[in-house]
Amino acid sequence: MPPPEPGAVTVPPVPVLRWRPMLLAAGVLLVSAAVAAGVLTTADAGAGRHPHAVASDGLRHTTVQVATSGCGHGWTHPVAGRQVFDLHNTSGSPADVHLTDARTGAVYGEVEGLGPGTTRPLQATLGNGSYAFTCLPEDADAVTGPTVRITGGGSVGSGPAAVPVTQQELIPPTLAHQKWIRSRTVELARRTDVLRAAVDRGDLAAARAAWLPAHLVYERMGAAYGTFGDADAEINGTTAGLSGGVRDRGFAGFHRVEYGLWHGESASSLRGPADRLAEAVRALRKRWPDQRMDPADIGLRAHEILENTVQFELTGRTDYGSGTDLATARANLDGTRALLGHLRPLLKTRTTGLTRIDTWMNRTQHALDAFDHHGRWTPLAELTRAQREKVNADLSELVERLAEVAALTDVRRTA
What we know:
Helix content: 40-55%
Distance between the termini: 39 Å
Number of helices: 10
Largest sheet: 5 strands, antiparallel
Order of helices and strands: EEEEEEEEEEHHHHHHHHHEEH
Number of strands: 12
Radius of gyration: 26 Å
Oligomer: single chain
Structural class: alpha+beta
């Protein structure tokens, strides 16, 4: 994480956790590594406990076997409602476990990496229907257990479920986004050339005016940063990890030019950094048609773009003098919206949460737009406490909502 520069705003960061996405649908977490007090532990989940007991948490618990020869065994008295399945791995190797709709394959919950001889809980709400456990042992084929039917559940409805996404399904939105990024590289090169030309002729006022439009084009391309490789540091690097800070020779790109433009450097001293930036952008534009974004990462990026915004822009860590972190946050929002547009056809069939995500996208956009005064953005340091708390809250809530996208598009093993 880059250290704050002199004059940068230091805002207490909103805690953000990184994790491998677990399956979510309709905004509800379907898998828990632990449930409320009273759940089974490895020690008390053995054969001596009744397989359909009601635990101190008030929920019905069913001990279910996880093994190649006995996947799903133990679920012999199915009932509707909210309940916990204590998955006990009786095999000699780790395994993933899915609770699925026996007809459609939709997943109601999952537990990953269940070790040999261990037990972990999986909580789900089930209504009338047909269900089955699928056990996916390490280095072995998937095994689906017996189909279990629940009847007589009355009005009890099942919790949300989603059919796992395949790598093949992620290819079309990935290709569409690659094409969108390609058009952005053309715009980026054009605007960066305007910035370099202003520096070359010594017009630093024009350079300051040209810096933000060029920088925001790059910020909208956040979903592709992982594909850019070393080019990202050359185009948008910070002083993080550089022993010399802003004077380090490795400090390059938009933020290096930003620092000079807003800290009184001469045009002659900025010609080198501006030329280096323009060359890096040109090289990226030339290489991009041959690059391939990883389809497995595209859904995660829809979440990580704004997660990084909360970590860096909303703390002032990436402000090197221009005071435009809120403009960057707005550009990151644009990039997220573009990526969601490409993923939307796939997500529509798997979640009802898109409406809520759209609501929070619009709410966050409205909050950020309030700080744009005809191209002059309010610096973080000038926000009131209430304004800063609202921006933090809105973006953080949106990040949580987008975690569902990351989870639903995470490619899962099914065979």
